[in-house]
Predict the 3D structure of the following.
Amino acid sequence: MKKIICSMVAAVAAFALVSCASAPKSSKASDVDLSGYTMVTLADPTDYSAAMDVIVLGALENTRLNVLGSAETMTSAEFATNELLLVKYGFIQSAGEATAVVTFIDALTLKPVAACYGTKTLGASGSTDMIKAMQEALKAAQILIKKTAPGYTEEVAAPEQSEEEADVAEEVSEPTDAESVAAEETEA
């Protein structure tokens, strides 16, 4: 009996560790309005792997931002705009988890203005976990960019009505027979 309980506890603990991953997170400088940015490019594409560049830029193409080519090939007029964000990314791998960080930098001031994080508990393959962590960080980036779009308003679900409130609303909206007859007489 003791072995069964111990094996059940071990199975639950193993499941919790394997499925454990923190939600994607983001942070931005409080004095920065990201709604003015319309373009994004990699800060230094020579520092990264081409495969990860494709993943990062592909995710950013699914946002309101216009993804530009390499910062090295841009004209000085394109680069010297207050609408351009540079993006850098990196990884931190500890014994138990992989964390991906995507940082957005203002192109004019070179000041970091926002960062998004994704964490994945290490499983069998460290490289797969790093990709999954990057996908979580990019999901956080997409959410952050969406929430900072000009004119963005978060859709809030209407509060649910209690049965009493619903009955009262129904009574108010439905005319009684006497009101219907009176309305028909006035129309005639």
Remarks:
- The chain has six helices and six strands.
- The two ends are 85 Å apart (CA to CA).
